[in-house]
Design a protein that fits this description.
- By secondary structure, the chain is α/β, with parallel strands linked by helices.
- The protein folds into 2 domains: 196 residues, 2-enoyl-CoA Hydratase, Chain A, domain 1, CATH 3.90.226.10; 46 residues.
- The longest helix has 20 residues.
- The mean pLDDT is 96.
């Protein structure tokens, strides 16, 4: 079992929780944290007993308050590009294309790389004290972990550009109005709310859920026809054991027990 220094990883099947655990740095992302996050994500992906992942930050101040700026303060152009590419490919894109639903429990500040991490998750639920923003231009750079793309997809070009070029943070209620988060709840109820949703999701077909995520992601992939992908993935569902069980349970008027195959 991996010996993590920067994250906490726990399983209460069928739900796993990964917590970014650098409270003294407001859970800021550094290379080591991203590397550990990728390792833990791969473990979740391979574990058939896990059907939903909750992603959060330790403490009550921050989900992830950004990237660890000191780590890249002396980088040149090539190093900057490599940093962004590695972060996008190893964690952010991997998370977006995860076959199991990922719920980001945003418990406080989600800034810069932290908001980018939350946006790569499939569902976002925020505590009422959460603050979100992409303040990179105030440091002379732009979001590099997919933030310019995902924020525009989630809230539209105009609002995304306003947030990015002004470097302003928005409240949880404003994020809800924008459609950046799905729900806003009190901090004390945040994890229980995420857990309740995770349990509802976990009762459904894992195979169908994975294909649904793939189909929705295709909507934002310019190299694909989302409608064609939906047709293909819909057809693939008919070849799964989950489909056979779901149909049998419906006809027999009982609750389905999906094998996830």
């Amino acid at each position: 079992m991996a010996n993590y220094q920067n994250i906490l990883y726990s399983i209460d099947a069928p739900i796993a929780t990964i917590t970014i655990n650098r409270p003294e740095k407001l859970n800021a992302l550094n290379k080591a944290t991203l590397a550990e996050l990728r390792i833990a994500l791969e473990k979740v992906e391979k574990n058939a007993a896990i059907r939903v992942l909750i992603l959060t930050g330790s403490g009550n101040k921050a989900f992830v308050a950004g990237a660890d700026i000191a780590e890249f303060s002396s980088f040149d152009k090539n190093q900057g590009s490599e940093l962004a590419q590695k972060g996008q490919e190893s964690v952010m894109n991997f998370l977006q294309n995860f076959s199991k639903p990922v719920i980001a429990a945003i418990n406080g500040y989600a800034l810069g790389g932290g908001l980018e991490l939350a946006m790569a998750a499939h569902i976002r639920i925020a505590s009422d004290n959460a603050k979100m923003g992409l303040p990179e231009v105030s440091l002379g750079v732009i979001p590099g972990y997919g933030g310019t793309q995902r924020l525009s997809q989630l809230i539209g070009k105009g609002r995304a550009l306003e947030m990015i070029v002004s470097a302003q943070t928005i409240s949880a209620s404003q994020a809800l109005e924008y459609g950046l988060v799905n729900h806003v709840v009190s901090q004390e109820n945040l994890f229980e709310t995420c857990l309740g949703l995770a349990q509802k999701i976990a009762s459904n077909s894992p195979r169908a859920i994975g294909k649904a995520i793939e189909a929705v992601n295709a909507c934002f992939d310019t190299s694909k026809s989302g409608f064609d992908e939906e047709i293909r993935l819909f057809g693939e569902c008919f070849g799964t054991e989950d489909f056979k069980e779901g149909i049998a349970a419906f006809l027999e008027k009982r609750k389905a027990d999906f094998p996830g195959k």
